[in-house]
Amino acid sequence: MVTAATQGAVDIEKANADAFERLTAADPWVIDVGIAREVIPGYTDDLILTSGAPMPWSEYVGGQREALVGGALFEGLAATREEAIAKFDSGEIRIGACHDYGAVGSLAGIYTASMPVFVVENRSGGNIAFCNFYEGKEPRRLNYGCYDQGVHDRLLYVNDVLAPVVAEAIRRQGGIALKPLIARALRMGDEVHSRNAAASVLFSRAILPAVLDMVAEEVPNVRETMLHLAENDYFFLRLSMAAAKASADAMAGVAGSTLVTAMAFSCRGFAIRVSGTGDRWFEGPPPIHEGKLFAGHSEDEITWMGGESPITETIGLGGFAQACALSLQDYQGGSPEVMISRNLEMYDIVHGENPHYRIPLFGFRGTPTAVDVRKVLATGVLPVMDVGLAGRDGGQIGAGVIRAPRECFEQAAEALAVDHAIETEVPR
Amino acid sequence: MVTAATQGAVDIEKANADAFERLTAADPWVIDVGIAREVIPGYTDDLILTSGAPMPWSEYVGGQREALVGGALFEGLAATREEAIAKFDSGEIRIGACHDYGAVGSLAGIYTASMPVFVVENRSGGNIAFCNFYEGKEPRRLNYGCYDQGVHDRLLYVNDVLAPVVAEAIRRQGGIALKPLIARALRMGDEVHSRNAAASVLFSRAILPAVLDMVAEEVPNVRETMLHLAENDYFFLRLSMAAAKASADAMAGVAGSTLVTAMAFSCRGFAIRVSGTGDRWFEGPPPIHEGKLFAGHSEDEITWMGGESPITETIGLGGFAQACALSLQDYQGGSPEVMISRNLEMYDIVHGENPHYRIPLFGFRGTPTAVDVRKVLATGVLPVMDVGLAGRDGGQIGAGVIRAPRECFEQAAEALAVDHAIETEVPR
What we know:
2 copies of one chain form a homodimer. With 428 residues, chain A is of the alpha+beta class.
């Protein structure tokens, strides 16, 4: 008997194959660094972006609310915390969701109008994605819900010192292809989410010809910028996120596709987008976590204040490539055995294996890529993500592994009106 | 009943513990680049060094003989091949073994008087080791038994362009600590013998402050040198070898110690040195191999023309750390499973686990370090090494894994007068 579910299955398979093909064909290049207000379409001076599915101001709590306030103060949209809150209340300062602007935010993911952003172009699809800069190693950072003089100064340092040099170097190089750089970093111990040590140094090497010219021409701040990059192993994460966003967006909007195109969370909860349902978010509770805390911190301090770096897992990196980066065991906890089995488990819930991003430990098997809503529900296996952990008083207090909640996938399946139990029809 | 063997065992254990302690305490720094004739003690203009236990000229055959002739031509010690051969015959050109001069040679391991060498100091022991420079990616190289105009030009490029820049950068930095750099590279997919991709880029990063100053001061050839380094992932191998030699020498000469302090081979065969017997070599047949050849080459072309890069395995790197560098599977063949089991097997024949060099895949277990002659004989497990493979017509034709022959260890045990079958008394 032909049921609605089996009738639909053929189209779903074709839609997913199309979406997967677009994803794996994506060719992200960082082509520039620009100022948010100038390069992000629709950006206005009164706009602050933050992580997760869009919410009204009143629902932002804890660290994510503090981060929004910090963003307003940093940008000079308010002189005091109270003034900032009043302006958020009145709508004089507007809040947007990063993803709605082609951007992705790390942790709380605060963007303000004057912030420099990487401009990443998918050269096979023409779409553009953005990500702003890493603030540096100091655990107190705006994107971890902190704002004080030190945070302010470090953000200005990014705006005034680092970004102009990196921008000019990228432009002089004619852009940098990120896909081969990421593929190489996977052979060098990174999964380019919680570990970017190799990718960061490879990026510095990629801009070296331009940098050497700039030093010879006495362009200001080049030496300082390069030494900063040399000391910041997470510098590349923002490029990895922008590359992932540019790649994931390429697979969005394929009618009938059940593949996940974004995973993100806010202080309220976790949410996913699915190719066949476009920009709609399917929300669930906060993620399930297991982690390792920095010395002096305890489990009850962990708080959720947003995070969109799981865009890397969305395209088969991060937790989906953690067997490339086993040295993460001393950063986020776990053992090689656990990391390997977690990575292998992801093959059960994805559409396919990435033809470009490969895992040496698995004999160069492609990373598990493109989570299929149906397979998550059929297997009960939840997508895994490597993330930094924020503390209730702000700042990074550790790192760990989170799992997306099942509820998001249930809602997505309902919206897609697909059968939850189709695993036996799906090639494994 | 107390036998000679059990009586001696206590002293051997203590001697090995002492030697191991000296090895693991070694703190190799590259402090300079100098010209062989100026910095290697006892070096004279008529001297050419080559790999393996010392032999008379008449016994050098094939590629290693060609490499010696090439060295004589490059150095201007002879104008023609015939003249070079005549001068080797007469002793007018002298041949030395690299190890006798504190040096180690890659493949044929040719040193001539004008060649630049890395000067590596063990800052915990004060001893110095040397290694000359990588010739570049071209398969036809002097150390693979080739000499022609191209080889000549590339060697001169090393002498005149690369070495002076690298020398000045190292001096300006006050030397570069190699042990932490190697430890970090092991987390980034290298085993620093057949894979040096991470270590090479980390080295470039380590000299970056000096390099940026030099560019600003318009020191010649800096840009060219840095771009050359950026394209040559094997650049670091020679630093890895010199660091290993400086470390291995620190454990030499401990009376009663059965730990191997050098493994090297020539066209004639493989040889080892052991701590308790000082500079004496114990020779055997050529190594046993399995490898992967570059396209267009066949197994019967493989020839032995020397190699001392197994000094890296001697201190617990290379093949003894191959589980760090699983991406080597597509360079030298094998599968992750085979590489992992080969690496694990090495724990059966070593004195201990390296406290500094660690393997993420094994939960940061220290690399198996310091081969014990007795354990090789007791277990029948032969030390494994990652090496480049040379072709009978010269040049590199592939890469693979070799094993040291048992005969070397039998002779060493005889000279040390130790019982071969003591495995049950040795802590595992």
